[in-house]
TrEMBL record:
This is Type II toxin-antitoxin system HicB family antitoxin. PANTHER family: ANTITOXIN HICB (PTHR34504), UPF0150 PROTEIN SSL0259 (PTHR34504:SF2). InterPro entries: HicB-like, TA_system_antitoxin, TTHA1013/TTHA0281-like. Residues 7-61 form the HicB-like antitoxin of toxin-antitoxin system domain.
Length: 71
């Protein structure tokens, strides 16, 4: 099992998500929950395609953490 960092962004009328460690692995959704489900499926399809093509599966290299500051 691998754990990849996913970046979620509000795009004005929907959410988008991408995985920096998997170039081109992106998805969208109307809600954050839908987007999370969609990107999970996109990650699995991405990895399945790499396997089918005999390519190496990238190791997760990023860590993320929310930091609170007074603003």
């Amino acid at each position: 099992m691998k754990e990849y960092v996913v970046i979620f962004e509000w795009a004005g009328s929907n959410y988008s998500a991408y995985v920096p460690d998997l170039p081109g692995c992106i998805s969208t959704g109307k809600t954050l929950e839908e987007t999370e489900n969609n990107i999970k499926e996109a990650i699995q399809l991405y990895i399945d395609t790499l396997r089918e093509d005999g390519q190496a599966i990238p190791e997760p290299s990023l860590k993320a953490k929310s930091i609170s500051v007074a603003a």
